[in-house]
Design brief:
Helices cover 38% and strands 24% of the residues. With 404 residues, the protein is an alpha/beta fold. The chain folds into two domains: 17-192, 2-Layer Sandwich (Endonuclease, Chain A), CATH 3.30.870.10; 200-391, Endonuclease, Chain A. The chain has an eight-stranded mixed beta sheet with strand order 1-2-9-7-6-3-4-5, sandwiched between helices. An eight-stranded mixed beta sheet has the order 10-19-17-16-11-13-14-20, sandwiched between helices. Helix 8 (270-285) crosses helix 12.
Length: 404
């Protein structure tokens, strides 16, 4: 049975934390970047038996140094410390930066260590496991802009800390990804089989994964199923460029109920902004609300569908829907979903509300051409090149409608 949500006031050091008890799980949502770093360090410093980390971007800056120091200190006091770092996302950090951690007995291995076609598949996960009992995930990476609100180029993001029975599934998942990275890195068939055969749990609190399978990733298939019967949809999404099948589903929710989208007005990649804006016209015609977040760069990955919340590492673009290795937490609880809808609604003062008239006014032919080129690069070229290089020109189980 789905548990009731119990709200509690956040401590002074965590002003933006949202807490809930759902089906025997304690869930803590942290929006403030400084509070996320404090919570991350507290978890590392409190570890007794084990620390397991998967990270897409790990920078050797202020935040990264503090995290590395905490991991090395944990290893020194006898905690088993293992890390899997994506070599593409973390291309700016030297392998030698991890030497102090290795010197204390910790292990660090890089996903896609060598250049080959599978290098284009990114381990986009952000996952921390402490003592096999606590999991932390979200869109944030280990770098100053994700773990501070004082940075001028900060990313507005979300972290989630989970305690409860479902953490055990992520412990098994880390073991599988770690084993693959150490022993079979670059062997695509093994990775695809791991993703394809991983159990899909749709209980009240569950973890869903994704990766380079022939069809829509498992986490996205669960979202698609929820959308097919949805009446309410709220989405705060860093990168938004889904295929036509998924886009039509979003439009149908807007037509039969209500849909609200918070999109990025600022990013480190202008093409992703243009690709999203190309799709605004369709959503607005379907009566969806479209807002663009203004204060800083939006990096959140949050979806609320009726009584179900998805939060984690996956964007709503072709790469996250089909190619990248991802992890998403799915929480079904009416009270928690309502509170997260309230969180999205509360972003309106920091957003520009995009009306059909305003969108039409700025969508001149030259601007639309730029948006179309952006969408082509983000939604077609990057996706197609990655899949063709890795899956071959002739798939063994071709799917004419990949959004099916």
């Amino acid at each position: 049975m789905v548990g009731a949500m119990t709200a509690e006031p956040a401590p002074a050091s965590d002003p933006d934390a949202l807490r809930a008890d759902v089906a025997g799980h304690r869930i803590e949502v942290i929006v403030d970047g400084d509070a996320r770093l404090d919570r991350l360090l507290a978890l590392l410093n409190g570890a007794i038996r084990s620390i397991d980390l998967i990270m897409y971007i790990f920078e050797h800056d202020g935040a990264g140094t503090r995290v590395l120091d905490a991991m090395a200190a944990a290893a020194k006091r006898g905690v088993r410390v293992r890390a899997v770092i994506d070599s593409f996302g973390s291309g700016d950090i030297s392998d030698s930066a991890f030497d102090p951690l290795r010197a204390e007995g910790g292990s660090v291995t890089f996903f896609s260590r060598r250049w080959r076609s599978t290098y284009l598949i990114r381990n986009h996960q952000k996952l921390l496991l402490i003592d096999d009992e606590v999991a932390m995930t979200g869109g944030f990476n280990i770098a100053d802009p994700y773990l501070s609100t004082r940075q001028t180029q900060c990313w507005f993001d979300m972290g989630v800390v989970v305690r409860g029975p479902t953490v055990a599934s992520m412990v098994r998942w880390f073991a599988a990804i770690h084993r693959y990275t150490v022993a079979d890195d670059g062997k695509l068939l093994i990775l695809r089989r791991l993703i394809r055969e991983w159990p899909v749990d749709v209980g009240p609190v569950s973890w869903l994964v994704g990766g380079p399978t022939q069809r829509l990733s498992p986490w996205a298939r669960a979202v698609r199923s929820d959308l097919d019967k949805a009446q309410q949809l709220d989405m705060a999404m860093a990168y938004f460029s889904p295929g036509q099948g998924m886009l039509r589903r979003l439009g149908r929710v807007a037509k039969r109920g209500r849909a609200r989208f918070v999109m990025a007005a600022k990013s480190d990649n202008a093409a992703t902004i243009g690709a999203s804006r190309l799709l605004y016209g369709y959503l607005l015609r379907k009566t969806a609300a479209v807002w663009e977040y203004q204060p800083c760069r939006l990096h959140m990955k949050l979806i609320v569908i009726d009584d179900t919340v998805y939060v984690g590492t996956a964007n709503f673009d072709m790469r996250s829907l089909f190619v990248n290795v991802e992890a998403m937490l799915r929480i079904t609880d009416a009270g928690f979903a309502e509170r997260m809808r309230g969180f999205v609604a509360g972003l309106e003062p920091d957003c520009e509300v995009i009306t059909a008239e305003a969108h039409k006014a700025r969508a001149g032919w030259l601007t639309r051409l730029r948006w179309t080129l952006s969408w082509f690069v983000v939604g077609v070229v990057d996706y197609t090149v990655s899949r063709r290089l890795n899956f071959g020109l002739a798939d063994t189980d071709p799917d004419p409608d990949p959004d099916r």
